[in-house]
């Protein structure tokens, strides 16, 4: 709904579909981060939208599951040209949002994961009293509604929610970056902005490639759009 509203506002201001949905989403992500206290940064514009729609199964398969270790995480980001620093910085987006219990309840049942703080586990069991519940909980329990570096403080305190979060501190290949971001929020903000811009330029279409969708949810009809 929000993207459709932005699409309509821009179309009115520009006299038609001039700004692509890809650019709208890129700008919306940046501004959303800024509105809750995160860094302000510039992003390149001029993207075009793809002329095909990726199947849901293909999109889901591209994301490593929340049970992933660092080896799997690094392999996943390497496929799209990102590295360990990008992985750790972009994972900091987990300072916002919620997760369903089924994404991490294997760390609580039948017994608590040895890498999880016992008091944190007891707190989580209040929201997730058994396996396979549909409940949700904040990913960053310290400041769930602010974009800051407390996600990394969580990891140092063994209070990372997902396995794929906590392993960033457990594994020597990424531990140093977690420690650095936990004590230096400006450095985290700088690296997060750099990695977001880097990610936003992966497999970009420009010029006459693709199209500019008039409805961000579907491809343009034959002969429609630009």
TrEMBL record:
<feature type="binding site">
    <location>
        <position position="148"/>
    </location>
    <ligand>
        <name>Ca(2+)</name>
    </ligand>
</feature>
<dbReference type="InterPro" id="IPR019793">
    <property type="entry name" value="Peroxidases_heam-ligand_BS"/>
</dbReference>
<comment type="similarity">
    <text>Belongs to the peroxidase family. Ascorbate peroxidase subfamily.</text>
</comment>
<keyword id="KW-0349">Heme</keyword>
<feature type="binding site">
    <location>
        <position position="95"/>
    </location>
    <ligand>
        <name>Ca(2+)</name>
    </ligand>
</feature>
<dbReference type="GO" id="GO:0046872">
    <property type="term" value="F:metal ion binding"/>
</dbReference>
<protein>
    <recommendedName>
        <fullName>peroxidase</fullName>
        <ecNumber>1.11.1.7</ecNumber>
    </recommendedName>
</protein>
<keyword id="KW-1015">Disulfide bond</keyword>
<dbReference type="InterPro" id="IPR010255">
    <property type="entry name" value="Haem_peroxidase_sf"/>
</dbReference>
<keyword id="KW-0376">Hydrogen peroxide</keyword>
<dbReference type="InterPro" id="IPR002016">
    <property type="entry name" value="Haem_peroxidase"/>
</dbReference>
<keyword id="KW-0408">Iron</keyword>
<feature type="domain" description="Plant heme peroxidase family profile">
    <location>
        <begin position="1"/>
        <end position="220"/>
    </location>
</feature>
<dbReference type="GO" id="GO:0006979">
    <property type="term" value="P:response to oxidative stress"/>
</dbReference>
<keyword id="KW-0325">Glycoprotein</keyword>
<dbReference type="InterPro" id="IPR033905">
    <property type="entry name" value="Secretory_peroxidase"/>
</dbReference>
<dbReference type="Pfam" id="PF00141">
    <property type="entry name" value="peroxidase"/>
</dbReference>
<feature type="disulfide bond">
    <location>
        <begin position="21"/>
        <end position="216"/>
    </location>
</feature>
<feature type="binding site">
    <location>
        <position position="64"/>
    </location>
    <ligand>
        <name>substrate</name>
    </ligand>
</feature>
<keyword id="KW-0873">Pyrrolidone carboxylic acid</keyword>
<keyword id="KW-0479">Metal-binding</keyword>
<feature type="disulfide bond">
    <location>
        <begin position="101"/>
        <end position="128"/>
    </location>
</feature>
<dbReference type="GO" id="GO:0140825">
    <property type="term" value="F:lactoperoxidase activity"/>
</dbReference>
<feature type="binding site">
    <location>
        <position position="143"/>
    </location>
    <ligand>
        <name>Ca(2+)</name>
    </ligand>
</feature>
<feature type="binding site" description="axial binding residue">
    <location>
        <position position="94"/>
    </location>
    <ligand>
        <name>heme b</name>
    </ligand>
</feature>
<dbReference type="GO" id="GO:0042744">
    <property type="term" value="P:hydrogen peroxide catabolic process"/>
</dbReference>
<keyword id="KW-0575">Peroxidase</keyword>
<keyword id="KW-0106">Calcium</keyword>
<keyword id="KW-0560">Oxidoreductase</keyword>
<dbReference type="GO" id="GO:0020037">
    <property type="term" value="F:heme binding"/>
</dbReference>
<feature type="binding site">
    <location>
        <position position="140"/>
    </location>
    <ligand>
        <name>Ca(2+)</name>
    </ligand>
</feature>
<dbReference type="InterPro" id="IPR000823">
    <property type="entry name" value="Peroxidase_pln"/>
</dbReference>
